[in-house]
Amino acid sequence: MKAEILDKLQDARRARRPVALVTDLGSGAQALLESGRVIGDDALAADALAAAMKMLDRDETGTVEAGSRRLFVHVHNPPSRLIIVGAVHIAQALAPMASLMGYAVTIVDPRRAFATDARFPTVTLSDDWPDEAMQRLDPDRRTAVVTLTHDPKLDDPALTVALRSPAFYVGSLGSKRTHAKRLERLRAAGLTDAELARIHGPVGLNINAISPAEIAVSILGQITEVRRRDAK
Length: 232
What we know:
Blueprint: H1 3-14, E1 19-24, E2 30-34, E3 37-40, H2 46-57, E4 62-66, E5 69-76, E6 81-85, H3 89-100, E7 104-108, E8 124-126, H4 130-137, E9 143-147, H5 152-163, E10 169-172, H6 176-188, H7 193-196, E11 199-200, H8 212-230
Parallel strand pairs: 6-7, 6-9, 7-8, 9-10, 10-11
Antiparallel strand pairs: 1-2, 1-5, 2-3, 4-5
Helix pairs in contact: 3-8, 4-5
């Protein structure tokens, strides 16, 4: 591997930017693929670029055929993230499930009686106010955000940041009536109809979930459905 490619690869990994190293198995030529940009010996024709980008979007490392070429695409993606606003009972079920699925989980809740290491021993906790925490966490296109508090003072600021970010999923707990009132508040705060349409509310797949664990399953199911649909 050439020094230029290695340096760029290390830079991308440090900055948590999705990147793939593409190697032509015939010639040995290599290129680094990041956000559609190609760096290195191999310019990657349109078909090769499309095939490699598909692998990158799907988090898949492996071999692809592009015309007469055989390429090995080594994906170096950071873990996907799940930001949960609200250290509530549903979060106690949702956080470990998401961790098992490979998500780096952060729980945001300024109420220190809720966000404790004893209740959430294996995930990152933030006791910042949600708007400050979300600005610091800076959701990207590999981030899902879920608000669970039912408290507009906590949920609404987090949603405002999330809806204006590239986060691939934004969901919020609450009934249809609660969600309608939420939309009114956020619209009055200046969010557009297009931004508001991104909210999955009521959050989760409609599986008639009742218990916190069942609701967590419905949320993760919907996150997975959205993520895999967008990567097709």
